[in-house]
Amino acid sequence: MNGLSIELPGMQLKNPIMPASGCFGFGREFSQLYDLNQLGAIMIKAVTTEPRFGNPTPRVAETDAGMLNAIGLQNPGLQKVMNEELPWLDQFDVPIIANVAGSMMEDYVNVAREVSTSPNVKALELNISCPNVKTGGIAFGTDPSIAKELTKKVKEVSSVPVYVKLSPNVANIVEMAKAVEDGGADGLTMINTLIGMRMDLKTAKPILANKTGGLSGPAIKPVAIRMIYEVSQHVNVPIIGMGGIQSAEDVIEFFYAGASAVAVGTANFVDPFACPGIIEELPGLLQDIGVDHISELTGRSWGKVDQKTYHRA
Amino acid sequence: MIRKEKMTVVSQKMIAENIYEMILHGELVSEMDNPGQFVHVKAEEGIDPLLRRPISISSIDKKNNAFTMIYRTEGKGTKRLAQKNEGDSVDVLGPLGNGFPILPHHKGKRALLVGGGIGVPPLYELSKRLVENKMEVVHVLGFQTESSSFYMEEFASLGHAYAATVDGSLGTKGFVTSIIDDMDGEFDVLYACGPIPMLRALEQRFSDIEAYLSLEQRMGCGIGACFACVCPVQGDESGTEYRKVCSDGPVFPVGEVVL
Ligand SMILES: Cc1cc2nc3c(=O)[nH]c(=O)nc-3n(C[C@H](O)[C@H](O)[C@H](O)COP(=O)(O)OP(=O)(O)OC[C@H]3O[C@@H](n4cnc5c(N)ncnc54)[C@H](O)[C@@H]3O)c2cc1C
Ligand SMILES: Cc1cc2nc3c(=O)[nH]c(=O)nc-3n(C[C@H](O)[C@H](O)[C@H](O)COP(=O)(O)O)c2cc1C
Ligand code: FES
C-alpha cells in the first residue's frame, strides 16, 4: 500500500500534494517539464465569469523569504476555461479543484454552477480571500455572515464538494472557519496571501502598480501553521494547508498542525520541479517518523485521534 | 525543451563598471536555439534571495557546451551572482522565451541593432547569427558613460558599431536616437533591446520597417504560468488581450504590444 494516498470530499488522491491556485496556471507550462499525473490534484487559476486582464504591471515584488503579487485574478473567463483548459487537463488522471472568484455573489454562483459540471472538476475552491481585487474578494473573506451566505448559495448550485479558501487577513480566523462550515463547506483551504507592501528606494513609491499585494512564500509559513492549528481544532471538515511550503519537511509540519492535504504555491516559481520533488521525498520521511500512512500525522500536535474516515483511501 | 540544471562557472570577470561576464558550462546549452532567449537563474541556494532572476543569453558556444551571460549588479540577486567563482555551480532554468527571429529572406539585407545598457548583451549572439545569415549589421549601443560600456570591439568585429553615452565620454553624447537620426541609408530590419523610452522612440521612428523589440518585465515563474509579466496588446478594444513577456516574448514584432 502507498502511504500517501488519501481521500478528501469529492476526491481520491494518489498523494496529498497539489499546486496552489494561481501558481500553476492551467498546468500547460508545467506539463512540458514533468508528467502531471504524479500530482495528487491540481488547483487551477481563479475563474471569473468574464475574461479579466488583471492589474497593471509591475505585479510582483520580491521580499525577504517571500514575494508580493498583485496579479488581480487575470484569467481567460469561464467559457474559455470550460471549452479549452478543462478539456485539455482531462488527459491527466488528476482531480481538478476549480478556484472560483467574482465581484458579486451572483458571479460566484454562476461560475460555480457551470464549472462544477466539467467531468474532471472534482471540487470547487471558493476564493473569498483574494486581496488584489477592488470589489468582492476581500469583503467576502472578512465578514463571517457574508462568507456563510455565499458558501450556502454556492453549495446549492454546485454538483461537487465546495472548499472555501480562507484569508489570513482577519482578526478571528476560527470564527470565519466556523461560519463557512455552518454554510455547508465540505472543506477549507488555507491560507491565502497576507496583504503587504514594498517601496522602491529610487522612486520612493510602492514597487507594485497596485500599491499593495499578497505576501506568499516561506515568510508566511508560521502564520499558516498557526491558523491551521487553531482552526483544525474547531471544525469537522478537512483542511488543505498552504503557505510557504517548500519541502517534504514543511508538509509534515502542516499535517501535524491539522492539515489533511497541502498545496504548494510560490515554491513552483523557485523550483518548477518542487511538487514532484516533495512527492518523491515524502515516503522516506514517513519511514523516519515511523508511520505507515501520512494521514496518521494530521493534527498530531494537538492529539487529534485519527477517527475521521476521509483521511484514508 | 526547458531544462533545469546546476551549471558550472567556467569563468567570471568584471568587464566594465558593475558589469560582469559569466560563462557557464552544462548540457542545457544543447537546448539553446534562438538569440534573445533568456535563462532564469537562482543566484543562491535557499530562500535568500527567493526568486529566480531573468538574464539574457548573450553568446552560445555549442561546441564547448557553454554560454555567456552579461549582467549588471543591481540588487541582491545579481550581487550574489557576482560573488561566484570558477568551478562554482549555478542553478539555471532555460532556455526561456522566443528570441529574435532570423529570417532566410533577409539574406543579403541590412540590419540595425540597437541596444541600451543592459539590453546590449542579447544582441551579441544575434549579431553573430545575422552575419552567418549573410547580412550586413550596424550596431548602435547606448551606455551611461564610457566606464560602463562593454563589448564595443566584439560588436565592431561583426559590423559598424556606434556608441552613444549620456555624458559623451564615449562616442556621441546623448541617446542612441541621436546617432540614428544622423545615419545614412535604409535598413531592412531593426532589432532592439533596452529601456522602454528607447523602445518607444524606435517604434515611432521605424513604424515602416520590420522591427523586433525585446522587453523586460518583473517575473514570477518565467515560464508562462503566473501572469506576472503580461503586457496589453495594441489596439485591443476588449481590454483583455495580453502577451506574456516570459513565454510569448521577450521579443515582439513592433506594434504588437503596448510599450
Ligand atoms: C527577459 C529579461 C532579460 C534580462 N536580461 C538581462 C541581462 O542580460 N543582463 C542584466 O544585467 N539584466 C538583465 N535583465 C534584468 C535583470 O533581470 C534584473 O536586473 C535583475 O533581476 C535584478 O535582480 P537583483 O536581485 O540584482 O535586483 P533587485 O532589485 O534586488 O531584484 C528584486 C526583484 O526585482 C526584479 N527585477 C529588478 N529589476 C528588474 C528588471 N529590470 N527586469 C525584471 N525584473 C527585475 C528581480 O528579478 C527580483 O525579483 C533582464 C530582465 C528580463 C526580464
Ligand atoms: C502569483 C500568485 C497568484 C495567485 N493567484 C491566486 C488565485 O488566482 N486564486 C487563489 O485562490 N489564490 C491565489 N494565490 C494564492 C496561492 O494559491 C496561495 O494561497 C498562497 O500563495 C500561499 O501559498 P505559498 O506561500 O505556497 O505561495 C496566488 C499566489 C501567487 C503567488
Ligand atoms: S513570469 Fe510567470 S507568466 Fe511570465
Automatic annotation (TrEMBL), chain A:
It holds the Pfam family DHO_dh. One of its GO terms (molecular function) is dihydroorotate dehydrogenase (NAD+) activity. Signal peptide: none annotated. Binds 1 FMN per subunit. FMN binds at residues 21, 45-46, 99, 127, 165, 191, 217, 243-244, 265-266. The active site is at residue 130. The keyword Nucleotide-binding does not apply. It catalyses: (S)-dihydroorotate + NAD(+) = orotate + NADH + H(+); (S)-dihydroorotate + A = orotate + AH2. The keyword Aminoacyl-tRNA synthetase does not apply. One of its GO terms (cellular component) is cytoplasm. One of its GO terms (biological process) is 'de novo' UMP biosynthetic process. It is found in: Cytoplasm. Pathway: Pyrimidine metabolism; UMP biosynthesis via de novo pathway; orotate from (S)-dihydroorotate (NAD(+) route): step 1/1. Keywords: Cytoplasm, Flavoprotein, FMN, NAD, Oxidoreductase, Pyrimidine biosynthesis. Belongs to the dihydroorotate dehydrogenase family. Type 1 subfamily. PANTHER family: DIHYDROOROTATE DEHYDROGENASE (FUMARATE) (PTHR48109:SF1), DIHYDROOROTATE DEHYDROGENASE (QUINONE), MITOCHONDRIAL-RELATED (PTHR48109). Catalyzes the conversion of dihydroorotate to orotate with NAD(+) as electron acceptor. Heterotetramer of 2 PyrK and 2 PyrD type B subunits. This is Dihydroorotate dehydrogenase. The lineage of its organism: Bacteria, Bacillati, Bacillota, Bacilli, Bacillales. The gene is pyrD.
Automatic annotation (TrEMBL), chain B:
Residues 2-102 form the FAD-binding FR-type domain. Pathway: Pyrimidine metabolism; UMP biosynthesis via de novo pathway; orotate from (S)-dihydroorotate (NAD(+) route): step 1/1. Transmembrane segments: none annotated. It holds the Pfam family DHODB_Fe-S_bind. Its cofactor is [2Fe-2S] cluster; FAD. GO terms for biological process: 'de novo' UMP biosynthetic process. One of its GO terms (molecular function) is electron transfer activity. [2Fe-2S] cluster binds at residues 221, 226, 229, 246. Binds 1 [2Fe-2S] cluster per subunit. FAD binds at residues 53-56, 70-72, 77-78. Keywords: 2Fe-2S, Electron transport, FAD, Flavoprotein, Iron, Iron-sulfur, Metal-binding, Pyrimidine biosynthesis, Transport. PROSITE patterns: FAD_FR. SUPFAM superfamilies: Ferredoxin reductase-like, C-terminal NADP-linked domain, Riboflavin synthase domain-like. HAMAP family: DHODB_Fe_S_bind. Heterotetramer of 2 PyrK and 2 PyrD type B subunits. Responsible for channeling the electrons from the oxidation of dihydroorotate from the FMN redox center in the PyrD type B subunit to the ultimate electron acceptor NAD(+). NCBIfam families: PRK00054.1-2 (NF000797), PRK00054.1-4 (NF000799). Belongs to the PyrK family. This is Dihydroorotate dehydrogenase B (NAD(+)), electron transfer subunit. It comes from Falsibacillus pallidus.
